[in-house]
């Protein structure tokens, strides 16, 4: 039986982000409070009788096998495993995930009986956790391609809290201790550092799970990439990345209700002279050890870029977090008449 404080904390965390749509089955889960939530976990999700629910978080998730399908999930951390309670639309959206779905249940779709599939990653199978730039997301890696999941929290606080809770739970695991490190001499210790590339910061937990954090070189690589898109490699020393944030680009669909399809995940990067939107691959990098070939697409792909000096005004919505911002650019280089013609007479 969890403490009152823990039950209250899990209840407070059980809130779906308002801007994201979820299925009826997950809405049911989000409506559970207090002990009902704990009972639901033990009755429907937990695989072992004596495991304890320690943390709950709502997050968008990406799977390594389906890098283009971002789906909402209720992430439950227990003393035995991490459970991803997935929106059932994810199963139908992608044929590669059809093995998740139990065909016998297909006749329930038209009834009031709603299903969710649950992806389980046992803590004993966990090998490493890669934390993304500025704690906007993190990737959990197991022993195969089926066991790689990225949680796009888009929130440094949620990322930090989950990592803390995960470390605490991993401390309870009884694993065989690592062999004693062999004393290295001066040359072997520093000789391997001459590759010109600094390794990422690694923290090896007592459970032997690696927690890998980005280093300054990742920001340097990103700055180089941004400068390349600006055709301003000469100005690279003076180029500063002021802001890196995972956001959504809102596509207004005429005559339709607001839905998730109008939100396109983007990485927003602000420099002192430009505003960029990138399509970023959050799941494939850094390459897992078993990867035979590099990913099909680059980590960053430019989607849009505008000069700050062309920014005319910024419109802010009145709603609370997440805040909607509209950037209005006055770009004199574009042919206004051509745009009007396209708007009025084109398809």
From TrEMBL:
Q: What is this protein called?
A: NISCH protein
User: Which InterPro entries does this chain map to?
Assistant: PH_domain-containing_M2, PH_NISCH_C, PH_PLEKHM2
All residue ranges annotated as the PLEKHM2 PH domain in the record: 114-178
Pfam families in UniProt: PH_NISCH_C, PH_PLEKHM2
Q: Which UniProt keywords apply?
A: Cytoplasm
* Keyword Methyltransferase set for record: no
Entry superkingdom: Eukaryota
- The answer on whether this UniProt entry bears the keyword Nucleotide-binding reads no
One GO BP annotation is: Golgi organization
Where is this protein found?
Answer: Cytoplasm
Q: Which residues form the Nischarin C-terminal PH domain?
A: 241-346
What is the primary gene name for this protein? Nisch_1
This chain's source organism reads: Oxyruncus cristatus (sharpbill)
A cellular-component GO term for this protein: endosome membrane
A Gene Ontology molecular function term of the record: kinesin binding
